[in-house]
Amino acid sequence: MNKEFIDALKIIVKDKGISEDLIFTTIEDALIAAYKKNYANQGASQNVKVTMNRVTGEIKVFAQKLIVESIRYSSLEIILDDAQKISPYYNIGDICDVEVTPKSFGRVAATLAKQVVTQRIKEAERDLLYKEYVKKEFQIITGKVLRNDKDHVFINIGRIETILRTSDKIPKEKFMMNEKIKLYVSEVINSPKGTQVHVSRTDPNFVKKLFELEVSEIQEGIVEIKNIVREAGARTKMSVFSNMEEVDPVGACVGEQGLRVRNVVNELKNEKIDIIKWSEDPEVYISNALNPASIYKISLDSEKKLADVIVDDSQLSLAIGKEGQNVRLAAKLTGWKIDIKALSKVENSLHESNAKEEEIYGNNIVDVNEEIIQEEIVNEK
């Protein structure tokens, strides 16, 4: 290799953001392996060092040998007299660098250096790409639809292409070619195949991030999203809390004339969104979570974390929701098991229980009266 090659190499690595020391060290390591494979004594585990001049490109190969009084292993040892011909400062026990550069090694080195540089550039570009996209993990990005097939949507998200799987699509959602869509980055992986970006539109955090973009009070830390659960395409329940008493967290998320929540709903293809006020009181929190139903009474079993909820008959179907969706999401949101009963059913059960008690009590009275009468008859005799 020559100076022109080294100068060109330095320009390339600087342009690609690769460490100059790293690239030279990597080339030297590769040359050591090449020398051992093609030139060294195959029967000996020879210690070899390769140096590359960072200015001229000159390459030298050195066999590192132990300085001894008498030689037993010629490939590993050297006597003191021979070592001091290289440097008068060597002593017994030192390691002496003996140059063993083959005449044809320059061509091997040039070819290998190009391969190493090419590989390092690929790795550096892959690392830079990963660093660029890992910053977008757990955030919303915009992509352009490239094509559709039966199970996937292929999307351009800048410097790479990603796939939106069926499981990550809102049910019945369809996209047009070149359509720009919002995506939640759920994971970024730096794999041997390159940077892989997993995206989703069904992740509950997609809804959370949409509200963060819409609601300035969330961005400022005034309003917090405490929890969010979702059945994509159908319904989302989100509990919110305000760090300022004068700010209504639900109202802040809904927005003036419902503008903020409407923007989110439109992005989610008209998915229903219940925004409820979070409370540290489980009874209040559960009642809020069952919105839009009105609750008559709640009884809590803290040990079992079970909530027995009674609602008016007219509110039963609303509290349970279609196919149990409302109560199911409320349970996930609050972390409590929720058992809902209609008020009439509870009252009927209570009446039946009271009737049985009265019947038992009445029978006991009859039995006692009969015993008293029998005793009186005996006494009269």
Q: Could you please describe the fold and organization of this structure?
A:
Helix 2 packs across helix 4 (105-134), helix 5 packs antiparallel against helix 8 (259-267) and helix 9 (282-289) runs antiparallel to helix 11. The chain is of the alpha+beta class and 381 residues long. Helices cover 42% and strands 27% of the residues. It has helices at residues 3-16, 20-38, 80-86, 105-134, 204-214, 216-219, 249-254, 259-267, 282-289, 316-320, 325-334, 343-380; strands at 48-52, 59-68, 77-79, 95-99, 140-148, 152-156, 161-165, 180-191, 194-200, 223-231, 235-242, 272-277, 297-301, 306-311, 337-342. The mean pLDDT is 88. The protein is elongated. The strands form 4 sheets. The protein has a 5-stranded antiparallel β-sheet. The chain has 4 domains: 3-132, N Utilization Substance Protein A, Chain:P, domain 4 (2-Layer Sandwich); 142-200, Beta Barrel (OB fold (Dihydrolipoamide Acetyltransferase, E2P)), CATH 2.40.50; 203-278, GMP Synthetase, Chain A, domain 3, CATH 3.30.300; 287-381, K homology (KH) domain (GMP Synthetase, Chain A, domain 3). It contains 12 helices and 15 strands.
Q: Give me the oligomer status.
A: single chain
What is the CATH architecture annotation of the largest domain? 2-Layer Sandwich
Report strand order across the widest sheet. 7-6-5-8-9
Class of secondary structure makeup: alpha+beta
Write down the domain tally.
4
Largest sheet: 5 strands, antiparallel
According to DSSP, the number of beta strands is 15
- The secondary-structure element order is HHEEEHEHEEEEEHHEEHHEHEEHHEH
Q: Gyration radius, to the nearest Å? A: 40 Å
The level 1 CATH classification of the largest domain is: Alpha Beta
**Tertiary shape:** elongated
- Strand content of the residues, in percent? 25-35%
